[in-house]
Design a protein that fits this description.
The complex is a heterodimer of chains A (152) and B (262).
Chain A: E1 2-7, E2 10-15, H1 22-29, E3 48-51, E4 54-57, E5 70-72, H2 85-93, H3 102-115, H4 121-127, H5 138-151
Parallel strand pairs in A: 1-5
Antiparallel strand pairs in A: 1-2, 3-4, 3-5
Chain B: E1 2-4, H1 9-18, E2 23-25, H2 31-36, E3 44-47, E4 57-60, E5 63-67, H3 72-78, H4 84-91, H5 96-101, H6 104-110, H7 118-123, E6 127-132, E7 135-140, H8 141-144, E8 145-147, E9 150-151, E10 158-164, E11 170-176, E12 187-194, E13 199-205, E14 212-217, H9 224-231, H10 242-260
Parallel strand pairs in B: 1-3, 2-3
Antiparallel strand pairs in B: 4-5, 5-10, 6-7, 6-10, 8-9, 11-12, 12-13, 13-14
The chains are: A alpha+beta (152), B alpha+beta (262).
């Protein structure tokens, strides 16, 4: 089936299988591999994207459900060739180890700071509780969140 | 496989009667796992996410009507004062990403023994509103849940709402698991100390084939934890043993009583 959706501000069309996830459509049909594919059951957060401005796991959204809706992936966060403040903060603090969880964490952090520009420690922990880093680099990830919050 | 995407409830009910084998899907947090792991290949999916009538919640006299499409995030934010135990339970579902997508209707439809919204709704005496092309009916949640992942919904019906008349009683929800987030309950408990009814009301999850309500007069507080533990029918499984689950319910009930009936 053919779907039309807005991805990172651009109208896109894709031919998808009825049972496939938005994540599969983004990565395999639309050439946007930034959102990572790992657990496929909403446990790891590495596929986090914004759907109509709401943070979701793209692996748990049916691609067909995105028809007519607006998706922002990690590729769409920066603008004019410049990194988003959250991405910049991850670079500055060395919050990237293997890098696999980074796109999901960047999107989740950008979502948190858009809603809570100055989050408490507990709010950060809760907001990022669905994003796993198997390198366990959480200390520097938290540094990045605090740095981005200060910069915003 | 087909995806059917109705825009109105009427259209959805018609499609439901024409395609009784189609799986209803809204937030997708349960259904997509089945599809991603190729555990099921339903002939069609009935996508309910575009139906305005299923969204949000409303108040009719003293009764709250919670749309089947109400997300855990909305429960957490909007129902904190009126249904505090449900709001607390919603906060423990998965992660923010899951809470943003997962819906009350989906939790009811899945009817897992571990469904987090079910104990708080049982304590508050919720009714499930079902609809088909033939009309509507309301089923008390206690009767709706008939077994593990089995419920009283017929093949031509859809869950459209949950009705609750908030008791206003002090209430809480607690859950045991390996961490605070992303946990399927090893055991869970909702409890209210309803002074108007003169009743303690508790409902457990993950400790029997269905989440179940246990009540006692307020005066029987001292024996209530034991009563809840005895009412449970837990099993040994990958998440915990029956003995541990009974023990956990005893502890949770004691703590919940301290919180709600001090």
């Amino acid at each position: 089936m053919r779907i039309t959706l807005t991805v990172n501000g651009e109208e896109r069309e894709a031919d998808v299988w009825a049972g496939e996830s938005l994540l599969f459509a983004l990565r395999e049909r639309l050439g946007l591999p930034g959102s990572k594919n790992a657990c496929e059951q909403g446990e790891c957060g590495s596929c986090s994207v914004l759907l109509d401005g709401v943070l979701v796991c793209a692996c748990l959204v049916l691609a067909a459900q995105a028809e007519g809706h607006e998706v922002v992936t990690v590729e769409g966060l920066g603008s004019d060739g410049r990194l988003h403040a959250v991405q910049e903060a991850f670079v500055q603090t060395g919050a990237v180890q293997c890098g696999f969880c980074t796109p999901g964490l960047v999107v989740a952090t950008a979502d948190l700071l858009a809603r809570r520009p100055d989050p408490s420690e507990d709010e950060i922990r809760e907001a990022l509780s669905g994003n796993l880093c198997r390198c366990t680099g959480y200390a520097k990830i938290f540094d990045a969140v605090r740095l981005a919050a200060g910069a915003a | 496989m087909d995806v059917l995407t109705p825009r109105t409830l009427d259209e959805a009910l018609r499609l439901r009667s024409e395609h009784p084998d189609a799986w209803p899907i809204d937030g997708g947090t349960d259904v997509l796992v089945e599809l991603n792991f190729d555990r099921a290949r339903p002939p069609a999916l009935l996508n309910l996410s575009e139906i305005r009538e299923l969204k949000g919640w409303s108040r009719e006299n003293g009764t709250l009507r919670l749309g089947a499409g109400l997300t855990y995030t909305q429960c957490r934010q909007d129902l904190r004062d009126v249904l505090p135990a449900l709001a607390e339970a919603s906060r423990t579902v998965g992660s923010p990403q899951i809470q943003n997508r997962g819906t009350l209707g989906g939790n009811l439809g899945t009817s897992s023994p571990a469904g987090d919204s079910l104990p708080p709704l049982l304590v508050e005496g919720a009714e499930v509103e079902l609809a088909s092309v033939r009309g509507e009916r309301r089923v008390p949640l206690e009767e709706f849940l008939v077994g593990p992942k089995r419920n009283a919904m017929l093949a031509n019906e859809l869950i459209v709402a949950v009705r609750v008349s908030p008791s206003g009683a002090r209430q809480t929800f607690m859950k045991v698991g390996p961490r605070n987030a992303m946990v399927i309950a090893v055991a869970s408990l909702a409890l209210s100390a309803d002074r108007e009814r003169g009743e303690l009301r508790a409902a457990y999850g993950s400790a029997g084939p269905v989440p179940k309500l246990v009540t006692a007069p307020l005066a029987e507080r001292a024996s209530f934890a034991e009563r809840v533990a005895e009412a449970a029918q837990p099993i040994d499984d990958v998440r915990g043993t029956a003995v541990y689950r009974r023990h956990a319910l005893r502890v949770l009930t004691t703590r919940a009583l301290e919180r709600c009936a001090a």
